Each structure stands twice: as C-alpha cells, then as structure tokens.
Amino acid sequence: MIKNKVFAEEDIEQVNEFVKNNILKIVKIHKYIKNSKKYFKIYYKEK
C-alpha cells in the first residue's frame, strides 16, 4: 500500500529526517505550491 505524507517547505529538517529513515520505502517526492506556500508530498510504501 502506498501512503503519503505532506510537509511544508519550512519543515525541511523533518523532510530530511523522514527521507533518511525511510529511504528504501520512498516511491517519489512531489513538490507543489498551494496558496503560495511550498510543500513536499512524499509517497512511500507501507507494509
């Protein structure tokens, strides 16, 4: 099952930590802008 987690750009430390801890599960990282704020949406596999 693929899940996703959204982080705001200012939470880049959390993004880095999440990526580091889940590097093998990550499917893709999608950057997008909503209401002129940047976000990261990380898709990852959950067993």
Structural summary, described in words:
By secondary structure, this protein is α+β, with helices and mostly antiparallel strands. It has one domain (2-45). The protein is built from 1 helix and 3 strands, in the order E-H-E-E. The protein has a 3-stranded antiparallel β-sheet with strand order 1-3-2, covered by helices on one side. The radius of gyration is 11 Å and the shape is globular. The N and C termini lie close together (7 Å). The model has no long low-confidence stretch (mean pLDDT 97).
Helix/strand layout:
Elements: E1 2-8, H1 12-21, E2 26-34, E3 37-45
Antiparallel strand pairs: 1-3, 2-3
Short précis:
The chain is of the alpha+beta class and 47 residues long. It is 21% helix and 53% strand. It has one helix at residues 12-21, and strands at 2-8, 26-34, 37-45.
- Compute the CA-based radius of gyration: 11 Å
**Total domain modules:** 1
* Form type: globular
Largest sheet: 3 strands, antiparallel
Number of separate helices? 1
Widest sheet: strand order?
Answer: 1-3-2
Amino-to-carboxy terminus distance: 7 Å
Name the features.
47 residues, alpha+beta, three-stranded antiparallel sheet, 21% helix, 53% strand, globular
